[in-house]
């Protein structure tokens, strides 16, 4: 199993849940901050007696991984970067390339390389976290939103491309999540989910071979409404 | 990043508006130590009263990783925010158990060391610290110090039972106990009065686990009416066929959650009396022998999640004292009389005979003698009852458990000696103020 963005809480909860449900020969933890993964690696080794390898990996750089030498049939990506948003500013230039690389361009390079390798291996699953922010550009975070829109479109194409090859692609669209990053933010309780529950929803989607899941389900309805607001009205809103 | 929130411990009393940080890394912790006047580590908030409360707290719940587990020696190293429940889930299937555990498994390892918790086997095995071999502590300078029985020993023993006042415990290594299965052989014996229950404790000294439930609303010749429970880890041949099929089973029952705070009238003298009557009388024979899972034996209330809501919004206090063994009878008699007279009912008051203390762990609460733990709903009468009880405990040279206290006389709590100013708590300031 390959976990990209392994320092995120959702990735960690999902990794633990998968290890509780089935066994994996090796767990590859990928993150640009590999140092922070050391305790998590020990924790997994103690708790699940599995082999864990840390791979320092940055989506901003070149993909130099040899996937053919890795033993896996599941790839989970929680890579994402919201950016440093500031009111009245579209995006800071250096931040913008980071938002685009981590949420889209770098991630596409990575997933392409994985997909090519899975074609050789002839089976597997790719689970990738996109966002509801990709469903309609809003003034508050549209660089991020457009990158997420891009990855959502990419994932649906990839799913289509790999369907006959026995490789499944699942798109995950979270709404608000209660994590270290959003700690202290005033999120609406009923629409906010904790990483542990989110991991369970992703796992059940994975078992049922779902194509796209929202976490939680209420976001499917919310986004339906948001998508269907006429542009003439939407452009005047401050969402 | 810090958030402003109202924090309180398991008794929901007292409540405090505080800045809560999450422990992220050493670098950030240094920043917190510089920015705040005083800091206190806070785990899962399962203590009572004003322990673990401070205007700035660092939550250790993010420190939830296991670091190593030697399955031949039974030694475990983990971060300080790991819960006892997580440890049980990991080690029980491998034939190990916690060497010492209090009545809830929802406490953190850091909290267990800071309060130096005790359990039903105190008379045999002592406190949790007896099994702790090493700990990592972030001190006021922001440095991490490793302390053990051979290295930085002064700091090690100062931290044991030190209520978090020496620093932030971030990691600990301790010895587990080997078990043959998840089951406990239990004998429950009814005692009509104080003389009987004390004789039972003395006669049960060789048992690994002993504890008694006591009905503290009884008066006159019934004073001390109680049920002693004594247990041993079950031998394989004592298990039923069903139990033998899954010898290392975890949690046999599903937990129920108390959905809301109960209104004030639910808990009154009458309902406590009725409950105590039922509890005592549901057992008709003098002695019952059975083999039970460790969960109901050690953690009878953990299957009722958020049971503290039963006491309603205003919360409750726990009053736990210990009095030297020699004066046990007179002291208990005095105290039980005072409680019965006050009509302040306590559900499931728990009595236990502690064994000898480890003089090295000078901050730990237990001393050889009888300890009684009581719950009282917070109300006006309590402010009169607590000083009355304190006076008796003081008279008999007893002490109060800091991990549970909020209202007691500082002289009963000043046995904890820690030299530090950076780490502090509401409780510690209250005690220091009263005993200059």
Can you give a write-up of this model?
- The complex is a heterodimer of chains A (239) and B (436).
- Chain A is α/β, with parallel strands linked by helices and 239 residues long.
- Chain A is built from 7 helices and 9 strands, in the order βαβαββαβαβββαβαα.
- Chain A has helices at 9-21, 38-48, 93-121, 142-162, 195-207, 218-227, 231-234, and strands at residues 2-4, 26-31, 51-56, 74-77, 124-129, 167-174, 176-177, 192-193, 212-215.
- In chain A, the strands form 2 sheets. In chain A, strands 3-2-1-4-5-6-9 form a 7-stranded parallel sheet, sandwiched between helices. In chain A, strands 7-8 form a two-stranded parallel ribbon.
- In chain A, β2, α2 (38-48) and β3 (51-56) form a beta-alpha-beta unit.
- In chain A, α1 (9-21) packs across α5 and α3 (93-121) packs parallel to α4 (142-162).
- The longest helix of chain A has 29 residues, at 93-121.
- The model of chain A has no long low-confidence stretch (mean pLDDT 93).
- Chain B has a domain at 183-409: Alpha-Beta Plaits.
- Chain B has helices at 26-35, 84-91, 109-114, 122-125, 153-159, 194-203, 241-245, 269-281, 294-298, 328-342, 382-395, 426-434, and strands at residues 2-7, 16-22, 40-42, 56-59, 66-70, 75-79, 96-97, 132-138, 144-148, 168-175, 177-178, 183-191, 209-214, 226-233, 256-257, 287-293, 304-305, 316-324, 349-354, 369-377, 399-400.
- In chain B, the strands form 5 sheets. In chain B, strands 16-12-14-13-19-20-18-21 form an 8-stranded antiparallel sheet.
- In chain B, 46% of the residues are buried.
- Classes of the chains: A alpha/beta (239), B alpha+beta (436).
- The A-B interface holds A 36, 39-40, 42-43, 46-47, 180, 183-184 and B 1-3, 22, 24-25, 62, 65-69, 79, 90.
